[in-house]
């Protein structure tokens, strides 16, 4: 970037950034990253591929019909016809044994025994079975003459923001910010230490804080690319909503990047080789991949674990990103999460600076 | 030339539990000289040099570099030094020019990347990535990184080990240029020819101590003599005392399948030796002579070879 643009002049004068150690260190980081194709893929390409794959797998579809079986018997055909008259349900007559086998195998959600009155055989722990029981009962009761007490009006709403892909995109963004901070800083520092580059530059008059600060600058610079690429792709390809303010989103991602930069520095502060730091990074990240609501809501875990899960920085980041992107709230509404991220950043940097092994 | 670039007294470095890497080492390097630390691997050369560079803390002893101690203002002192470590891996995917510019930015004043490239002969490689350089080119770049701060004192830790002849000569040039400008160089090496050629004075280090010190010529003359004659023959039929009685022979020592003799007048000693062996009916299986070197000094003082 400081190269002269038009051919090499006879005596090149130093450019404005040539004598700034911070600028040179940050430039070195950016260049080394951009010249490593696999690093570029994992940071920019992979999250998009994941969004595409999961967006396709969990795309919105018309609901599956309810599958019901009627046990063979004298009244079976009347029952089957009553069910078949309903919408969104398929019914077939099967011998008793075959019908029960189909229920056990999940091929049908309910088996109707056509006695008078009929009996319903279903598994109450399966949501689709319970739904099937309600629909079957409704159809058979009505066929037997029951009248509705009142007529209702259905208002249907399938809105962007409520789909799986809309849940997923903020989670992937949070996950990406976490991995980029941990690998992009933790791993790279330990590599410098293992190759004795750290020792070599500590032997120059370079200020040590410049070395660490350059990583933070690099992370923030890359956010400017990472976030618009992933969010822009999701908006264009899947119509994912972006209801909150862009400034709020930007501030949150920067906070997240700072928090995970701090954690990255922390895991790198003592490790002597890249195997050790790789293990440490996985140790820190793996629980958050599972618990912090990247791919499914962290509400699925038992209530007693919730305070712990809320305290994880990735949970805070994901919850705040979802609130801003999907619900359109401002930064003020997610201040607890923002404060937690800021706290993690400060603690991470503080401890890392105290423990850092420079040679 | 009376002031000292480096002064250290009673330097000790102990690695718990029981490794004593440096064991009471004293050293004085004068301003403007090229000083060589010689010794076998494990003698404590690198530990010593890293203590002097302020990268390791000594267990005991005093160190003064350019009149300062490392406790005073390390950054100011570092800006006056240039160093190469025994091994450094610079960033693979940066170009020679980019690496030099980065190192230059760390120094408050110094020489631009362009000038330093010329000093180490890497002008044509300026846009090559580090991982595309040969071993010799990488080493020259490491030295260039040590020169960007325009150092008063340059530390080179085994700068030419394993290098091609062109890179070796280029690095010798760099040392020569430093000396012409009145700068100080401290280098470690186990190439004796290199030490004899580059160093004004050398110290031979063994087991963490300086065992002898002086100009290469002084050391050779004082410890060994002018010439070394080595021969192989059935040793049980030759006595050391008979050999020492021959003219021109100063010292004789059993060495493997024969003897190693230190000789001051080879034109007298050699005919006398041959006549003596012939008279005793001893058949030679090998005979060679060479000018005494620092290698001989080391063997004489320690009974071991440098590159074992």
Characterization of the model:
The complex is a heterodimer of chains A (359) and B (308). With 359 residues, chain A is mainly alpha-helical. Chain A contains 13 helices and 4 strands. Chain A has helices spanning 21-34, 37-57, 76-84, 96-104, 127-143, 164-194, 197-202, 208-238, 246-268, 274-291, 306-310, 313-327, 335-355, and strands spanning 66-71, 89-94, 110-113, 119-121. The two termini of chain A are 30 Å apart. Mean pLDDT of chain A is 88; it is low at 1-11. Chain B has 308 residues and is α/β, with parallel strands linked by helices. Chain B has helices at residues 45-52, 74-78, 96-105, 113-120, 135-147, 165-180, 192-198, 216-224, 240-244, 266-279, 294-302; strands at 4-15, 19-30, 34-38, 60-65, 81-84, 153-157, 184-189, 201-206, 209-214, 227-232, 249-255, 258-263, 286-291. The longest helix of chain B is centred in the middle third of the chain and has 16 residues, at 165-180. The model of chain B has no long low-confidence stretch (mean pLDDT 90). Chain A binds chain B through residues 2, 11-12, 14, 18-21, 23-25, 27-28, 31-32, 35-36, 195-197, 199-207, 359, and chain B through 53-55, 75-76, 78-79, 81, 83, 85, 87-94, 98-99, 101-108, 112, 114, 129, 145, 149.
Give a short synopsis of this structure.
The complex is a heterodimer of chains A (359) and B (308). With 359 residues, chain A is mostly helical.
First-last Cα distance of chain B: 37 Å
β-sheet strand percentage of chain A:
5-15%
CATH superfamily of the largest domain in chain B: P-loop containing nucleotide triphosphate hydrolases
| Average pLDDT of chain B | 90
Number of strands of chain A: 4
Oligomer state equals: heterodimer
Head-to-tail CA distance between termini of chain A: 30 Å
The sequence of SSEs of chain A as H and E is HHEHEHEEHHHHHHHHH
Give the class-level CATH name of the largest domain in chain B: Alpha Beta
What structural class is derived from the secondary structure elements of chain A? mainly alpha
Q: Helicity range of the residues of chain A?
A: 55-70%
Radius of gyration of chain B using CA atoms only: 23 Å
Q: Indicate the CATH topology of the largest domain in chain B.
A: Rossmann fold
Question: Uncertain runs of chain A with pLDDT below 50, 5 residues or more?
Answer: 1-11
CATH architecture of the largest domain in chain B: 3-Layer(aba) Sandwich
Tally of strands of chain B: 13
Number of structural domains of chain B: 2
């Amino acid at each position: 970037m400081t190269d002269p643009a038009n051919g090499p002049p006879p005596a090149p004068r130093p450019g404005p950034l040539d004598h700034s150690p911070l600028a040179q260190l940050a430039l070195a980081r950016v260049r080394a990253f951009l010249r490593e194709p696999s690093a570029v893929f994992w940071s920019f390409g992979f999250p998009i591929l994941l969004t595409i794959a999961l967006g396709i797998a969990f795309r919105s579809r018309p609901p599956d019909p309810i599958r019901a079986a009627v046990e063979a018997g004298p009244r079976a055909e009347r029952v089957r016809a009553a069910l078949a008259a309903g919408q969104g349900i398929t019914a077939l007559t099967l011998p008793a044994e075959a019908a029960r086998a189909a229920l056990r195998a999940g091929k049908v959600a309910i088996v109707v025994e056509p006695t008078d009155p009929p009996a319903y055989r279903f598994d109450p722990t399966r949501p689709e079975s319970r739904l099937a029981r309600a629909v079957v009962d409704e159809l058979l009761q009505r066929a037997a003459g029951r009248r509705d007490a009142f007529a209702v009006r259905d208002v249907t709403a399938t809105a962007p923001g409520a789909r799986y892909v809309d849940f997923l995109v903020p989670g992937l963004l949070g996950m990406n910010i976490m991995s980029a901070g941990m690998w992009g800083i933790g791993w790279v520092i330990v590599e410098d230490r293992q190759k004795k580059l750290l020792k070599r530059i500590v032997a120059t008059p370079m200020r040590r804080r410049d070395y660490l600060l350059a990583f933070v600058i690099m992370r923030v610079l890359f956010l400017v690319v990472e976030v618009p690429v992933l969010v822009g792709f999701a908006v264009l390809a899947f119509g994912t909503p972006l209801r909150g303010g862009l400034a709020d989103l930007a501030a949150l991602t920067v906070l997240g990047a700072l928090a995970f930069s701090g954690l990255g520095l922390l895991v790198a502060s003592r490790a002597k080789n890249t195997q050790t730091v790789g293990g440490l990074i996985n140790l820190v990240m793996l629980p958050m991949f599972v618990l912090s609501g990247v791919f499914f809501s962290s509400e699925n875990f038992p209530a007693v674990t919730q305070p712990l899960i809320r305290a994880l920085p990735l949970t805070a980041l994901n919850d705040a990103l979802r609130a801003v992107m999907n619900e359109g709230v401002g930064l003020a509404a997610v201040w607890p999460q923002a404060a937690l991220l800021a706290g993690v950043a400060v603690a991470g940097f503080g401890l890392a600076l105290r423990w850092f092994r420079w040679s | 030339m009376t002031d000292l670039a480096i002064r250290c007294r009673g330097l000790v470095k102990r690695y718990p539990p029981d490794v004593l890497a440096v064991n009471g080492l004293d050293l004085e390097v004068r301003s403007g000289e090229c000083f060589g630390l010689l010794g076998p691997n494990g003698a404590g050369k690198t530990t010593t040099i890293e203590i002097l560079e302020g990268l390791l803390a000594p267990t005991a002893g005093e160190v003064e570099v350019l009149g300062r101690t490392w406790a005073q203002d390390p950054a100011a002192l570092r800006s006056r030094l240039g160093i190469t470590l025994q091994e450094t891996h610079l960033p693979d995917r940066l170009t020679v020019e980019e690496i030099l510019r980065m190192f230059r930015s760390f120094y408050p004043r110094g020489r631009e990347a362009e000038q330093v490239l010329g000093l180490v002969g890497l002008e044509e490689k300026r846009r090559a990535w580090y991982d595309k350089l040969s071993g010799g080119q990488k080493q020259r770049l490491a030295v260039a990184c040590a020169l960007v701060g325009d150092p008063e004192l340059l530390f080179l830790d085994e700068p030419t080990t394993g290098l091609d002849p062109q890179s070796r000569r280029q690095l010798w040039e760099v040392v020569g240029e430093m000396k012409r400008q009145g700068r100080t160089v401290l280098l470690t090496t186990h190439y004796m020819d290199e030490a004899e050629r580059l160093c004004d004075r050398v110290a031979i280090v063994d087991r963490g101590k300086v065992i002898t010190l002086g100009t290469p010529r002084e050391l050779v003359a004082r410890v060994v003599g002018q010439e070394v004659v080595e021969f192989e023959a059935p040793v049980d039929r030759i006595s050391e005392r008979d050999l020492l009685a021959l003219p021109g022979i100063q010292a004789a020592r059993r060495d493997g399948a024969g003897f190693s003799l230190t000789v001051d007048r080879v034109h007298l000693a050699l005919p006398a030796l041959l006549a003596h062996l012939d008279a005793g009916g001893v058949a030679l299986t090998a005979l060679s002579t060479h000018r005494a070197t620092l290698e001989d000094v080391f063997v004489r003082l320690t009974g071991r070879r440098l590159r074992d």
